[in-house]
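Consider the tokenized backbone below.
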């Protein structure tokens, strides 16, 4: 890919060089009135220009424009030639927008040689400086779950003011305007992602996402991301696994692909095998079957061993450029051991003890307070025959008698 782009650039440079050599004295002016229009498509901008005024009356000339712009998503210059006077390209609005256009003349007026303008019309647009510093979201990622729905998640920047609200907008070529997230995913009272159901996002199209927001301190810094969802698929977890011992001591694992729209031939599998020896030692092996079989055979199994398997899947490279591994299936084992009794839940025991202790403490405390109040009351009312006073005096007399 990089080599291809490089070659294209080299060829364009050669053409430009050849053109400047063949220039026969005629000078060409660069285009005029270069402008960039933002139709509200989250950085999908319309670049347009006018032909140089000096060429307006040259009817026998064919004019071609050579456009260069800095592709902020690829981090390199992109070039293209056209005879129309506008072009749309994708920019990250949080970065500098740089565009250059040259005029190229051809046809009878130049005796059919191409002449390119020496200078170019240039436009450099700085990103808006609005937004509270360091409040852009982090780690924006989307996952296309089992080709059914897309979940996009982000992490709040730690510097985001506590009371602030984040919004997600998205745009692709089938939409007239940017649209807000249909269903936010909220945790802890804060928006952390967006759930796009069904076919609300198209495959094989650049989708631009923008996370912006507002806070009492002002607008939050925006983040722009452009991606295609067919490369973000994560198959569902495999639910159905069958393990059987063959007469020849082979262990055969078979599974069924998860339900859904991902075709079986698009999945490749990883099988994890855990072998537990009689001494309790566990050895782990992992194997990836690039083939799209739904089975795996362990050549020989000894009776003394316990073999456990689990599988996960991913899209084969013939079906998608990239994909995420599914979650692991639940392990299936031979021999099947009964589920071990759930371990005592240590965290629960102290809670009961604490509650009991707390109740006892409260009871004792209330008794003490009650008693203290009683004493105070009896003292105030000077009732010598109250129980406590009697006990007290009896104690005193006893001590006196002992002494
Ligand atoms: C460029 O824009 C200016 C002002 O808008 C206008 O006067 C001029 O005619 C334009 N030039 C061309 C070639 O259209
Ligand atoms: C183009 O031609 C028109 C009339 O044909 C003339 O009035 C005008 O000045 C010319 N413009 C240029 C830039 O030569
Ligand atoms: C354009 O070219 C044709 C022949 O190619 C010629 O007859 C005509 O006079 C030219 N017109 C102008 C305005 O140069
Ligand atoms: C145009 O080019 C041809 C061959 O490329 C040449 O014979 C002719 O003299 C050139 N005419 C002018 C006006 O430069
Ligand atoms: C999140 O992004 C930061 C920097 O942008 C990076 O250092 C970090 O590794 C990312 N974390 C995850 C979980 O991807
Ligand atoms: C997103 O929506 C789908 C159904 O449209 C649902 O199955 C899934 O659980 C949702 N995800 C979250 C994280 O709520
Ligand atoms: C976020 O972006 C959308 C789309 O550009 C815009 O309509 C909205 O006003 C923005 N919200 C904030 C708080 O900046
Ligand atoms: C394993 O899967 C492949 C391909 O689906 C099939 O040809 C083969 O017969 C299967 N093996 C067994 C033992 O089922």
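A designed sequence for it:
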């Amino acid at each position: 890919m990089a080599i291809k782009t490089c070659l294209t650039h080299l060829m364009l440079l050669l053409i430009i060089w050849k053109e400047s050599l063949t220039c026969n004295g005629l000078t060409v002016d660069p285009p005029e009135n270069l402008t960039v229009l933002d139709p509200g498509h989250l950085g999908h901008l319309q670049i347009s220009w006018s032909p140089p005024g000096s060429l307006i009356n040259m009817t026998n000339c064919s004019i071609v424009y050579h456009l260069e712009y800095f592709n902020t998503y690829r981090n390199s210059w992109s070039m293209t030639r056209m005879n129309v006077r506008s072009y749309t390209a994708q920019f990250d609005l949080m970065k500098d927008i740089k565009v250059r256009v040259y005029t190229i003349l051809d046809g009878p007026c130049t005796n059919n040689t191409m002449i390119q303008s020496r200078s170019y019309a240039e436009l450099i647009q700085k990103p808006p400086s609005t937004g509270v510093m360091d409040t852009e979201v982090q780690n924006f990622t989307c996952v296309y779950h089992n080709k059914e729905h897309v979940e996009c998640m982000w992490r709040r920047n730690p510097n985001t003011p506590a009371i602030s609200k984040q919004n997600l907008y998205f745009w692709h070529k089938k939409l007239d305007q940017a649209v807000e997230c249909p269903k936010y995913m909220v945790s802890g009272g804060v928006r952390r992602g967006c759930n796009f159901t069904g076919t609300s996002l198209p495959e094989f199209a650049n989708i631009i996402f923008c996370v912006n927001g507002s806070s009492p301190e002002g607008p939050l810094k925006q983040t722009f991301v452009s991606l295609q969802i067919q490369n973000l698929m994560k198959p569902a977890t495999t639910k159905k696994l069958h393990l059987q011992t063959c007469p020849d001591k082979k262990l055969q694992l078979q599974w069924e692909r998860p339900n859904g729209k991902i075709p079986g031939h698009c999945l490749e599998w990883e099988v994890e095998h855990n072998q537990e020896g009689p001494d309790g030692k566990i050895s782990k092996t992992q194997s990836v079957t690039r083939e799209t079989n739904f089975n795996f055979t362990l050549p020989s199994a000894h009776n003394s061993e316990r073999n456990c398997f689990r599988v996960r899947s991913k899209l084969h490279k013939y079906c998608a450029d990239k994909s995420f591994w599914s979650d692991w299936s639940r392990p299936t084992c031979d021999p099947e051991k009964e589920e071990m009794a759930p371990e005592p839940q240590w965290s629960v025991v102290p809670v009961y003890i604490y509650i009991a202790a707390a109740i006892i403490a409260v009871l004792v405390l209330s008794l003490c307070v009650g008693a203290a109040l009683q004493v105070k009351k009896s003292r105030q009312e000077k009732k010598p025959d109250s129980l406590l006073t009697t006990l007290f005096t009896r104690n005193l007399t006893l001590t006196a008698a002992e002494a």
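Residues 111 surround 2-acetamido-2-deoxy-beta-D-glucopyranose (ligand 4) (CB under 6 Å).
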